[in-house]
Design a protein that fits this description.
3 strands; 85 residues; alpha+beta; 2 domains; three-stranded mixed sheet
Length: 85
């Protein structure tokens, strides 16, 4: 594979993203990169600027979305408190 240095990359095709992810990622650390397929923009790839990634609290989200209607929320609470099934 031929590696080409790309400066000021503002757009990248899906092919470039798949085959040369490292250069697209490096460009995204400097500025957002538009991802195109057949000449049309299908997304924007940008680097995360703030600290570490934290997993979402799925139990809290389930409670918020389903309330007490969702039976496994009670199970999750029970298991989180150290109880058994």
């Amino acid at each position: 594979m031929c590696h080409v240095l790309m400066y000021n990359m503002s757009t990248a095709s899906v092919r470039q993203l798949r085959h040369d992810f490292a250069s697209v990622e490096a460009a995204a650390k400097k500025a957002p990169v538009k991802i195109t397929r057949r000449g049309k923009v299908i997304g924007v790839f940008s680097a995360r600027r703030n600290g570490k990634w934290h997993a979402p609290d799925f139990a809290a989200r389930a409670k918020e979305d389903f309330g007490t209607r969702f039976s496994s929320v009670a199970l999750v609470d029970k298991l989180a408190d150290g109880g058994e099934r």
